[in-house]
Amino acid sequence: VGPTIAAGEILVEIMATDRGLGFLEPLTLVGPYPSGAPAIFIDQVARLGGGAGLIGCVGRDDFGTVNLNRLRRDGVDVSAVSVSDRYPTGSAFVRYRPDGGRDFVYNIAESAAGQIRLTAEARQLADRAGHLHVMGSTLSVAGLREIVAYATKAVRASGGSTSFDPNVRKELNDGADGAQFSALVDDADLLLPSGEELLTAAGVDDECHAVKALIARGVGEIVLKRGAAGSSRFAADGSRIDCAGFLVEEVDPTGAGDCFGATYLTCRRMGMEPGKALFYANAAGARNVTRRGPMEGIAGFDVLDGFIAGTARAT
Ligand code: ADP
After folding, report:
1. What ipTM score was computed for the predicted complex, to two decimals?
2. CB 165 within 8 A of CB 195
3. How far apart are CA 144 and CA 37, in angstroms?
4. What global pTM score does this model have?
5. Distance 289 CA to ligand 1 centre (A)
6. Ligand 1, closest atom to CA 192?
């Protein structure tokens, strides 16, 4: 069975330790933490023991090394992560507000993350992959659209599967991007929306109709992320499973959705039945929000089993 692969931005995240508004005065910051949604996702796959590979680009600098070291340590194939001599590794500064909202300062547009290309190494990884995970947000980068188109074909040709997290951006709703977005939704074996994204992807305004419409369009299964409330899984046969969230203190919500999706997918690829996979995914998402840093809460099955045994769930 070929590895699960993802493509996209690799960054470091630097966080303020106190809550407040903006970055207008000197703050106590912690980091750099390895980050970037595709990196978080694929690292969680690897930690669970699923084969995992990432297509991306970092700068030849310490922030790039922070990421490469972590991904390598956790068993991710980084042969398709190129290293730019010209562009630095991207960074994101985040500060949480008292109301739970977030303020960001991004240094990404002119970073190595924007230099991602369909290299020979990326083709080789895609050619031997068993599953491709795509994120809607990454489709705004031209090089990534090309990678996704190539990898989708390659994975399909070798009998593999795809998943899609439609973390929508407004700029995706028109032109060629809109068409690629719709095709990714229609062709997804597994769709992983959170909250409103389900309705946006379906173009209707209630959950029940959205699920029916997407299944009718050919989506294999839909797993809906509901934050602290947990998650639900809808299948083409009309079945539905709900899974209550674990009761935890949320320290840093960044990365929960990616950990959750990676865990559901990996459990399913290992042959676990949907209800059990959803339970582990809820545990992975919940544990991740208890740690500061988007990848610091990533956990293998041993840690997740301990977390499950020691944590109550909402009823
Ligand atoms: P996203 O990060 O994509 O918006 P969510 O915030 O819904 O996704 O988080 C994904 C999953 O992680 C949820 O479905 C839930 O299982 C778990 N999770 C997230 N936040 C919490 C929380 N505060 N308490 C418990 N579980 C959480």
Report:
1. 0.98
2. no
3. 14
4. 0.96
5. 8
6. 3
